[in-house]
C-alpha cells in the first residue's frame, strides 16, 4: 500500500518523494470518502467524514445485520468464561515459531521465497481439522519488470456456504535493493505478521470452525493470501494490487448460489496490513462498516478491563475513534469497487520501519501481536456466532 503524494515522512523514506501533489486522473472509486489516487483526503472531506462517522455511531445498535444481510444478530458477546476459553486457544509461541518465522524471507512474486511462503501457508491450513478448501489463483500479468506469474491463495472452510466473513492480507514483499551486508527486505509487518495472525486465528478457532461446517452453518470463514500487492516501480493503478485486482474480477464473474457471485457472498472483508509493531493506531475508514469497527473498539476495551491484554494502562487503544488521517490504497480497493463492505485494519501512521530493511523480527512487538490476535479471535467468534 502507499499513502498519497505529499504524504508522510515514511512515504518519502520509501523513495516515493514528497510528490507533485494529487494526480489529475482520478480512479473511479465508489467507496464513501475514499479519495481517488491520493491516499490523503483533501481537507474539506475530513469534517464530512467525521460527521458521517458520528452519524453511523449514532445509528449503531448492538449488532446490526449489515447491508448484505448478515442475518439475525448473535446472542451477543460471549460470557467471560467462554471468552477466556476462546483466548486460551491462542498460542504466542506457535504464532512466532510455527507461523511467522518461516515467512520471514524475501517473497518477491514468482520467486522461490514466494513459492515457499505459499507452501507454508497451505501446509499450515492443511494440517488443521477444519479441512480447509484450498485453491490457488495463478495468473500472469505484465509489470514494469516484464511478465510475472502471481498466485493468490484462497482458503475457505465451507465453500458452499451462502455467506462468508473474509479475512485478507498480502504475502508478497516489495523489491528493495539489498543492504550493505546483502540483507534482504523481509517485510515483517508488510505483511508477514498479518499472514501469521490469520494462520493463528485459523488454528485457535479450528474446533468451532469444524463444528459450524458439520452443522451446515450459513456463514463461513474465508482467508485470502494475496500476491503482488506491492508496486514493481512507482505505485500506479496498473502497477500495484495485482493479486487483489485479478481475484476480485474473477470472484465477481464466478456464480455462487442461485442469484449471487463469489463477491456477493462476502458479508465483510477485513484487510490486515502493516501490523506487528508497537502502538498501532487503527482507524475506521468507511461509514458503512463503522458498526463493525465499534465492535473491535468494544472488544479491545473489554479485554483491557479484564486484564487480558499485556498493555500498560497509559497505552492508547489500538482501535481509535478519532477520524483516520486519510484513506490508504490497498488490496481492499478492487473489492470495495465491487460493493464489498470493508474494514481496513492498518495503522496510520505506518510503522517507523515501513519499506526499509529494518522491517524485521527485531522491530516487532510480540505483546502487540498477541493482543491483536486476542481482539481478532473474539471478533471472528462473535461474527460467526460461535
Ligand atoms: Zn509494502
TrEMBL record:
<dbReference type="InterPro" id="IPR037457">
    <property type="entry name" value="M28_QC"/>
</dbReference>
<keyword id="KW-0472">Membrane</keyword>
<dbReference type="GO" id="GO:0016603">
    <property type="term" value="F:glutaminyl-peptide cyclotransferase activity"/>
</dbReference>
<dbReference type="GO" id="GO:0005576">
    <property type="term" value="C:extracellular region"/>
</dbReference>
<keyword id="KW-0012">Acyltransferase</keyword>
<feature type="region of interest" description="Disordered">
    <location>
        <begin position="1"/>
        <end position="25"/>
    </location>
</feature>
<keyword id="KW-1015">Disulfide bond</keyword>
<keyword id="KW-0812">Transmembrane</keyword>
<keyword id="KW-0479">Metal-binding</keyword>
<feature type="domain" description="Peptidase M28">
    <location>
        <begin position="152"/>
        <end position="379"/>
    </location>
</feature>
<dbReference type="InterPro" id="IPR040234">
    <property type="entry name" value="QC/QCL"/>
</dbReference>
<keyword id="KW-0808">Transferase</keyword>
<dbReference type="GO" id="GO:0008270">
    <property type="term" value="F:zinc ion binding"/>
</dbReference>
<protein>
    <recommendedName>
        <fullName>Glutaminyl-peptide cyclotransferase</fullName>
        <ecNumber>2.3.2.5</ecNumber>
    </recommendedName>
</protein>
<dbReference type="InterPro" id="IPR007484">
    <property type="entry name" value="Peptidase_M28"/>
</dbReference>
<comment type="similarity">
    <text>Belongs to the glutaminyl-peptide cyclotransferase family.</text>
</comment>
<feature type="transmembrane region" description="Helical">
    <location>
        <begin position="45"/>
        <end position="63"/>
    </location>
</feature>
<keyword id="KW-1133">Transmembrane helix</keyword>
<keyword id="KW-0862">Zinc</keyword>
<dbReference type="Pfam" id="PF04389">
    <property type="entry name" value="Peptidase_M28"/>
</dbReference>
<keyword id="KW-0964">Secreted</keyword>
